[in-house]
């Protein structure tokens, strides 16, 4: 399924050709689809490997970023993260950088895999606290490590503002877009964050978290890895049940200003995701709708 106008097509034949040229010892291993996100398509390779291919040239830089930084960050984290084992080079069949990682067993957090959501929220908060506490090792908010979610809400208002109209036209009365826009506008009047920059995963939504025996067991997909203010890191908490959200906030002792800015980032991602992916990625649209409904429910309380 193509999501972007400039998407590079990929299928199992393409993946086999890449492996035959660059890692022939893996070329005959079993290969099967292992999911796809907005930026990457993935295939499980044998029992122990995962092939990850960017959808567009814009997201290929994220592959190189993971190859550079994940081996340096992993030893400093208690929670497992992806381990790159091959840096794939572009070819005529696939003209972008790509990667092979160790396979990490686990399931997506959900009602069938997590029973104690408060404990899950506490686990996630512990991972975030540890990650944000890692020394930047000379990294700065520039180039591939600069992303809008680690910066200023106000700097994004021009393009996010237009997304509210597009979302309103798309969902009609299914969501109270006016209330969401009021929350966004109110956040724009808040003081800007002033603390130090930290490492940011950038997209801690449930599809990028793995659980085993009901507990957080790994964090995956560091394509949005960046350096910046931590507020937006907390935005995906509205994708989780209230018990997880409250335990996470309490564990990190997040103040009202930080929480309001985090909520604004969650709104921004939700309304832009609905308008952009409405016709191409219904599963992601459903995620965005669920996030926005949770925000409205919280605001009503």
UniProtKB/TrEMBL annotation:
It holds the Pfam family APH. One of its GO terms (molecular function) is transferase activity. Residues 32-265 form the Aminoglycoside phosphotransferase domain. The keyword Electron transport does not apply. InterPro entries: AGP_Transferase, Aminoglycoside_PTrfase, Kinase-like_dom_sf. Keywords: Transferase. This is Aminoglycoside phosphotransferase family protein. It comes from Streptomyces palmae. The lineage of its organism: Bacteria, Bacillati, Actinomycetota, Actinomycetes, Kitasatosporales.
């Amino acid at each position: 399924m193509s999501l972007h106008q400039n998407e590079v097509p990929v299928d199992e034949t393409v993946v086999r050709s890449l492996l035959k040229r660059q890692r022939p010892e893996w070329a005959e291993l079993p290969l099967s689809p292992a999911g796809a996100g907005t930026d990457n398509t993935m295939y499980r390779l044998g029992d122990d490997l995962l092939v990850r291919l960017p959808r567009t040239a814009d997201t290929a830089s994220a592959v190189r970023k993971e190859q550079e930084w994940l081996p340096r960050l992993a030893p400093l984290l208690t929670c497992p993260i992806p381990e790159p084992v091959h840096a794939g080079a572009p070819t005529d069949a696939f003209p972008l950088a790509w990667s092979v990682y160790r396979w990490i067993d686990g399931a997506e957090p959900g009602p069938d895999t997590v029973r104690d959501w408060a404990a899950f929220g506490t686990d996630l908060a512990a991972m975030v606290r540890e990650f944000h506490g890692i020394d930047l090792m000379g990294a700065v908010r520039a180039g591939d490590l600069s992303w809008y979610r680690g910066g200023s809400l106000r700097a994004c208002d021009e393009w996010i503002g237009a997304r509210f109209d597009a979302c309103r036209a798309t969902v009609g009365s299914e969501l109270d877009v006016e209330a969401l826009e009021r929350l966004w506008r109110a956040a724009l009047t808040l003081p800007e964050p002033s603390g130090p920059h930290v490492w940011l995963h950038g997209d801690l939504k449930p599809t990028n978290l793995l659980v085993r025996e009901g507990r957080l067991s790994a964090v995956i997909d560091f394509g949005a890895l960046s350096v910046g203010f931590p507020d937006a890191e907390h935005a995906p908490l509205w994708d989780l049940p209230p018990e997880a959200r409250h335990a996470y906030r309490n564990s990190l002792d997040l103040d009202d200003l930080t929480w309001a800015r985090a909520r604004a980032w969650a709104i921004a991602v939700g309304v832009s995701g609905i308008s952009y992916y409405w016709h191409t990625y219904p599963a992601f649209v459903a995620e965005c709708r669920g996030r926005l409904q949770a925000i409205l429910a919280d605001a009503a309380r």
